Backbone:
């Protein structure tokens, strides 16, 4: 039995069917101690002209990842309707409360939006946002681009990525889009635990879905913002929404073939990184040491690579806690 | 009238006059709700052999700067007494409560240790630490090396630095030490507001004082840790405490000739960096844009360079608040 | 399939079937860090004599609204059993943890009690309270009076209100009760989103339900407390529980015919109110300005009325956030 | 011995000697965990033309009082230089961190600015602000107007006020200015405990000083904002800075002849106000009752007037704590 | 319909089927603001040799109860595989986040683990832990021993306990195990509200389940740790996993025949204990007084025993809040 | 030069010179965000009849120590003026904000009252309280009794104590009073660091000063309350204020001859107590073990006695942090 779901409490101040450039809000009523009849107001822009495919572009799925919001606030401001054939829907900061707080999760309910799909219209604020994307925005889209970076606690090699999918035709469309994005690195992902992800929600609806990891640490640089901006325009050109050919360059394909790629700390302490992102490692190489914090003269524990590859991601803060992901080693492929 | 000061409440479990390697604590009694008779225990190591100069090596003056603690925990563990002629005193994490919390200032009293000198024996925990360095440790030292980086909110080009000093002979000794440290960049600093700094406390006591800024963001890398480790050994060799010649390499000298070097944000918003650390700028170039957060379609404000030079430091987090230092432009000198 | 529900964990120390005046508690076990075997103790009074209808009188559904609690603590203390024919059940502070904290929602679980119905016996503390009213107290009642005001963040013209209902006979009984209450203003409400409300729970059980908004701001005045006290006695007289005729006076009927009545802020800032509660407005009149906070010399945004009417409610605090309800304009009817 | 004081760390981006309208900042460096090189940026406006007296107009001395900020942000935006003969310095939000937080005291250091004078250049953020007013802004001024209201926890009859002063000529100038302000009520104050007040700082420097209390509760209304705006222009006209005669109306003079005017709660509880602001009371009348919160059926304590007069101020929130000022009774004078 | 449940996200680094001594972790992925790819790492030890029954030994179900963790960390360190016939699984701190915080409930989600069974694989962190015990660890066990004490807010006479069960054969096995544990007191419990308890989860699976209360207050003593250590070894011997006979001593059997055993505070205040744990009381005796906190000279309320017995448990902190369990009186049996 | 000090802002509602029983407040104005004109109200009682010595009895110097407050609230309630010759001043909770919060230090300013003497009339709330005792209450007293226990984090053998003093006549009067108090243990203290203590303030004014430690853990028992009550009456009788002879019993005199008595933890971890309070130890005996928290199978550190004696105090909570006082060993004397 499929229960009839309540309508979303979110209302959009933009008309998704109107041509032209619109800047507006998704208004989500949120009653709370400091505003009895308050709302969360999520900025949204729609740029549309005539018929054509729809691209749904999102950043701020996690609130402390910045390449996406920078590229998308900029795009929303500068993309003209006459540049477009079809529709571009831009939500630069999906989990807007998290984005305003500069945190991965929502300060309202500690919700990790990317683990909250399909969401609930009568759930937490984060679940209500997920539900609106699930039931209203994703169905409008043909192509979905969701920007991620490492946030305040992880740092990545800059890559665009797609998932291996059961529908190989859909998978090919996704990897073609990744290639069009043309980041310095590209990743083929096998999601072990896809429950609750926006990625899965989009893919299950048959969409072409591209995601990224573009460095991290809770900052951005001119270089990584440039990757995001160029990649976005490349995708819009690839989809035929914006005219012209993608400006592609070389990319290196990475793979994470097993759980051995991921290394977790088994001690609290001070991290001494022994190699940096992009460096080659061989199985058994020391990637990092963890020094005990309580006194001098103690022997640090050593964290070693479990397989050959490159250091693709790392724990960012100077201190580490037991259980934190300390390092990710990816293998390098030359062709997809 | 000079009041007779109370003794420091801090007691050291190491004997500064004993030869050999000692690992111990500075114990600072600190009564509080969750420990009526508790203490702050600051790790300290002393490596001593015979007569010779004393180097006082410190990290964690600000608790979220990591190259110093990593290099010094490692040195304290590995430096043997037979490698030393004289004495090396190592405090890897001066503001130890801040270091444990991973924050710039102390979680106990929000004290910024580097603005708390000369401290007070009956003041806050942070002031008691400052007082102990002022009256007990600094007088023991000939050479003082204090590690800094940008911490969680700033990022720097990696440099060692000393101050212009009224005593030109002392100043020369300091800059010679900076040169011996041999970081990729070296800085000549004119401190506008030196009140409360550890630097000033050391310099006023006639010590050779070297400080650093070695990137930032609240992390460290293999590369920046390498600079810190090599620079420390270089200094010990330069001082004759460790045998051998410093391993020096090329360094570029930077200068900050005026207050125009420092740019402050006049708006809250999302930072779009337009150039990166080390990039050349000309006066009038856009260094960064600040996008308003509340809605799409708004014009960002532009932050421009006030003089020619290189981008030497920048605001690190992806969001910025009014009043934050957004960028520092330094001029480049070829010779000191 | 209707699942068999677990019994409520709440136990009452009063006997709802006993004649006389009883003061007691609803005890809700609540295990927590600072009391392993603790409870929430919600004050309740029952005044009963013989047969007759039951009035259930509640305040503190939101914890920062005070006319109800003042009138009901006072009534519970002063109403004698010999004044009553039937039963009066008084819970002056339904969401008792919120009432003690002086906040709209519960400090325990941030629950908004008036959006938590029908509740759950194994849910949060707030949901357990809702469940007890839903399954135990509401079934005992014929007449339900629930006091509201604007709380700390809204301010209202003082009115009693009932909802338009599908059962027109029930609706008439409700509006007759509103008229008997005889507040300075009376309101006919069409609830757009009635999910989770106590109002709906009571109405769906066929009860005569009256609610109020009696100013706000997190305070009360002698004048608004007087309205609450007189209105309560008027209702008890109207229901035949207390002897005598209601002391009625003139009331003005208000209506909120559409969503255009509600105005939301689209900017953060400092509120400059341009008209006050009860003032007449015409569509297009400026109701308030919002001044940017960051610097002087900026143009404020203007918030204008969308229809003719009177200012019936307004944002109370001096600062406003994007998404807050800034103003409510109601139309005025002369007859119901 | 008078110690030579350090200069203020605050720098102004406006030139106090330049003609015209300037909007700028007082920049106060404030290093902290979330901004190593951050600043507090206090908005300031200067409107100047030629020679003439200087008025220093301030709001936000307490951060939750809004008539002053509204009137002064508006004045700073609209006052033209050609309207002025002399100089108007406007700081709409003195304790700017408190103003942004909507709290009486600073969220940085919990400083009550109006108890922090003369301040210290090396003290807390709040003390640094006080020091800047003490040593830089007050010396520039002839006339000082500082807006207050009751804030979130008190409510007042709207009045302008000055203090009885030892210099009777200065006192007369102050009361003449109060009369020119022309609020509905005017107050002659004998400050019992003037330590640390901005009032005292200004008066000790021989300035004409006017303050206000314009209702409270952490809000403002069109009516009270109107009083503030008209009063400000009246003062500028009275001082000859703006041309024209003050628009005065009737005012009632109040007095607080003794400590008996102030009533403090000796119990925690729920406040039942028995009279409202402006109501006449006689000694022995019940002003308010305090109901115990823990259970129904308890006898409330009664708070009675100690002298004849009008209710001039009252505790605002619906709950009261032991030690809170519950009510202030002022006596009424017909002439000054 | 039984839904197919998702697998647990928890992975164990130990092999439950391998002989020998293993020390490892239960790793529970937990993404959060300060660690995007973080985990909770719950220590676990498995000591196994050959065939034989499995004992599952747990402490830290509530995080502020210490006899269990002390005895079990010690046992995990000292028990050799050659001492064992069968298997001993030791989780010294079940609700590990609570244990590290020293709180009853989890600092992550405020979950009370002992009210979270059977848990959910996609629920809160606490629910995920419960689910892992429910579906993975409990099925491995024959005998389950779960240590409790009063925690920071309660204090108990030291006893081991089991529940009356519908399956009298199982009940007998449980009480035989309680007798083997041989604490100074033993308790026969009738659980009124068993929903969500680990006890119930284990009993419903047919396991022999023993629990304890071994004093409290958030501490432990040499004496109570001794009871826990000896009791644990006694149980392992009783089960035949460790060779030898239990070292038993005298125990007094207690009973809590009705809800009258539990006394709850109806006032906030300062507790004056009038009798101590283990003291005999008669119905009507004063157990404790509660002094009002606000002023001197007030009459304290008296809390009296409702039945004859001994004081078996009491509120621990010096202050009490309305609704806290103040005292538990148990009756004493001489034989089971 | 002695500066003229400002008067205390505290006012007493009792008349210290009036005969009879008075219950009142010390009112300390305290302006804050949630009460602009608020006060701290410290309960005080004065029982006086005719001439005679004055006893000043205090509890709650630390807010989480309960024997004193219980005994003194009870005494204030029950002591009749006709029982007294002279004057008894009772302040059951000196640091009243800390007492209400149940914490050692003040929740307002984190002030440790017993390290805040002589205080300041313009300092923090805690310093203002100290100043009032220093300048107003202590001068009124002949005999001062200040109750302490271990609070939430320490536990003591129950003893009364006095200090060795330079004035041997005063010292004898103090130890005679300790003997009259007649606790199970008595202590002769040599205060190493007496700065800021109430003890020192009283002793420097020549008063007879007695203090206690009566167990701890943040609770009290019937037994320890009994010691406090009897000891207080004994002292009043000893001073001749209450008629009759002290009810004395045997006491054991303890001594802490050196800093070796105090043992501090050098590791974080789980405490395994190996002996209990009052147990005999010999130098080298293991008093406690500290188990690492992160995993099973680790070797605990052992804490050993440095001298022969009895365990006189211990760390109370189950977890310990580096720097916490873990144990105090006292030597036992048979005669004073």
Residues:
């Amino acid at each position: 039995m499929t229960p009839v779901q309540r309508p979303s409490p979110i209302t959009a101040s933009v008309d998704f069917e109107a041509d032209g450039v619109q800047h507006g809000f998704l208004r989500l009523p949120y009653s709370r101690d400091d505003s009895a009849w308050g709302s969360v107001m999520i900025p949204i822009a729609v740029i549309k002209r005539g018929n054509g495919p729809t691209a749904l572009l999102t950043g701020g799925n996690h609130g402390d990842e910045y390449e996406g919001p920078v590229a998308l606030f900029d795009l929303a401001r500068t993309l003209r309707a006459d540049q477009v054939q079809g529709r571009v829907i831009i939500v630069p900061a999906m989990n807007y409360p998290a984005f305003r707080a500069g945190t991965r999760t929502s300060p309202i309910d500690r919700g990790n939006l990317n683990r909250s799909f399909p969401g609930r219209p009568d759930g937490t604020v984060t679940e209500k946002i997920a539900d609106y994307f699930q039931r209203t925005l994703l169905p409008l889209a043909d192509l979905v681009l969701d920007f991620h970076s490492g946030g305040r606690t992880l740092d990545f090699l800059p890559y665009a990525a797609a998932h291996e999918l059961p529908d190989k035709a859909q998978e090919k469309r996704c990897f073609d889009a990744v290639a069009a994005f043309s980041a310095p690195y590209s990743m083929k992902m096998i999601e072990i635990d896809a429950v609750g992800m926006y990625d899965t929600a989009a893919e299950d609806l048959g969409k072409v879905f591209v995601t990224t990891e573009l460095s991290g640490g809770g900052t951005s640089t001119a270089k990584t913002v440039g990757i995001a901006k160029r990649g976005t325009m490349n995708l819009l050109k690839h989809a035929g929404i914006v005219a012209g050919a993608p400006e592609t360059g070389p990319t290196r394909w990475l793979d994470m073939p097993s759980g051995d790629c991921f290394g977790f700390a088994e001690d609290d302490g001070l991290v001494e990184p022994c190699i940096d992102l992009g460096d080659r490692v061989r199985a058994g190489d020391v990637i990092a040491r963890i020094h005990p914090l309580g006194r001098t003269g103690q022997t640090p524990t050593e964290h070693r690579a479990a397989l050959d590859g490159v250091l693709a991601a790392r724990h960012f803060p100077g201190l580490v806690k037991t259980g934190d992901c300390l390092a990710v080693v990816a293998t390098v492929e030359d062709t997809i």
